[in-house]
Write a structure and sequence with these properties.
Length: about 325
């Protein structure tokens, strides 16, 4: 394995910190959006409980994982205990009820990979997607939210990375690039790897939270209030972390051999997971293990064309942060 010399970070990196923090601040949703989301959720709760009195609505994704920007759509999961339900039937029935409840653009997509009903609430202007019994998404949303509580630099770094990915067009799974969920996991893994570490590995600690979803056991330490200050021995600034994140993915990550694993708090080998060859459509060109469904590679959507696009974008970002006098402008330039 080739040893690569570490590139030294520019000496004035901390001078960029204010610009990165300002970018982060500008993307945080204002409090009144939260109020509107609650209002819509209450409305939907009323509609759903008429037909399914025991069902519950859970918000997942960016509105609940603390990595959401202003004006995000809401992802909602309708949890129905009855195991014998037909998801398509539920979604069609739900779509009918929503339509009568005066919600707009109601559309049931029963044949999508994750079947959903889409809607728009004219009162708040919020759009949302409702799926049925996608409990794993609710649980991994909690894991992300719990990690974000431990050190503010995770949320700051992930906002910068997501904003970069959206600006540069590399946050589109249907085009072979990565989901926001994958980028947040890359940030968590990266902060677990810093020395001293900025984040612990919650799944490697004593489990204080545990649920079983299908045949997957989801267990981890969720008393994160006990971990405040965990990363305080590491004083790296946001700007330095952004620089190191992009350098890692541009120059140091071993694409041929390594899988990043939040579940184990380190990298694991592609060989051990048998992710060295293409199987069906899974090419494993960049390997990001799902923290609970560990047989699931979130990089599976990446193909031989989009891996080049991604790696060129990582290199572009690393170079801008290393050399550009004013990196925040060019880094987020629309593609
Ligand atoms: P955005 O701000 O871009 O909407 P998001 O946080 O909503 O970001 P998405 O990638 O849209 O992120 O995913 C929404 C949620 O769906 C995630 O938080 C996660 O719970 C779940 N999810 C998405 N992709 C996967 C996947 N491949 N496997 C498991 N869960 C996933
Ligand atoms: Mg989303």
């Amino acid at each position: 394995r080739m040893l690569k010399r570490q590139i030294a970070c520019r000496s004035d990196i901390n001078r960029m910190n204010g610009a990165f923090l300002a970018t982060f601040e500008s993307l945080i949703p204002p409090e009144e959006e939260r109020t509107k989301q609650k209002q819509l959720l209450a409305l939907l709760d009323g509609i759903v409980s008429k037909e399914w009195p025991d069902a519950r609505l859970y918000v997942y994704g960016s509105c609940a994982n603390s990595f959401g920007f202003s004006k995000s759509d809401i992802d909602i999961c309708l949890a129905i205990e009855d195991a014998n339900i037909d998801k398509s039937e539920v979604l069609l029935k739900l779509a009918d009820m929503l339509q009568s409840g005066n919600l707009q653009n109601v559309q049931a997509l029963t044949r999508a990979r994750v079947p959903i009903v889409k809607l728009m609430d004219p009162e708040t202007g919020i759009s949302c997607d409702i799926c049925v019994n996608n409990v794993l998404a609710v649980v991994n949303t909690k894991l992300l939210r719990d990690y974000a509580q431990i050190d503010v630099r995770l949320r700051q770094l992930a906002f910068i990375v997501k904003h970069w990915a959206k600006s540069r067009g590399v946050n589109q799974t249907y085009q072979g690039t990565l989901s926001s969920y994958a980028y947040v996991l890359m940030c968590i893994h990266f902060l677990q790897q810093r020395r001293p570490a900025i984040l612990p590995c919650l799944q490697g600690m004593e489990a204080t939270y545990s649920v079983t979803v299908g045949n997957i056991e989801c267990a981890y330490f969720d008393k994160v209030e006990k971990l405040y200050g965990f990363g305080s021995h590491n004083g790296e600034s946001l700007a330095r972390l952004v620089w190191a994140f992009f350098s890692y993915w541009a120059y140091y990550h071993d694409y041929a051999n390594d899988v990043i694993s939040v579940h184990s708090g380190s990298t694991v080998s592609k060989r051990a997971k048998d992710w060295t060859r293409r199987i069906g459509n899974d090419r494993h060109l960049i390997c990001i293990e799902d923290p609970f469904e560990v047989s699931h590679d979130l990089g599976r959507v990446v193909d031989k064309f989009s891996i080049r696009v991604l790696r060129e974008e990582f290199e572009r970002a690393a170079e801008i942060i290393q050399y550009d006098p004013n990196p925040c402008v060019k880094l987020f330039e629309p593609y």
